[in-house]
Amino acid sequence: MSIHPTEAVRTHLEHAGTGEQPVLSLRGAAVRVGGRTLWSGVDLTVGAGEFTAVLGPNGVGKSTLVKVLLGVLPAAAGEVRVLLRQRPPS
After folding, report:
1. What is the tens place of the pLDDT at every residue in 18-44?
2. Which residues contact 22 (CB under 8 A, 6 or more apart)?
């Protein structure tokens, strides 16, 4: 029996206590694709229970941000933490 990813996050947050640690944290994060920097110097903190929207025109890196948070694409610089796990830059 496998646990649904959403349920795994919910279970982690329930065991995290008061949510003092952020769920997502980016510090000075940057991403490069094909030698082109899509974004850099990103600082973002999202706590448990918070709702955050990322808005912008086509091609500015919104989907790329999600890929970095999921660990599909490494950050080129900075620090990315998701549920207290650090994702090192490439």
Report:
1. 546 889 999 999 999 899 999 999 999
2. 45, 46, 47, 48, 81
CB 84 within 8 Å of CB 21: yes
**CA distance linking residue 29 with residue 51, whole number of Å:** 20
CATH code linked to domain 5-87: 3.40.50.300
pLDDT at site 11 = 56
pTM for this model (two decimals)? 0.70
Six-digit token string for 83: 């549920």
- Residue 81's beta-bridge partner residues? 25, 86
Domain limits, the chain: 5-87
Which two tokens mark 14? 């329930």
Polymer length of the chain: 90
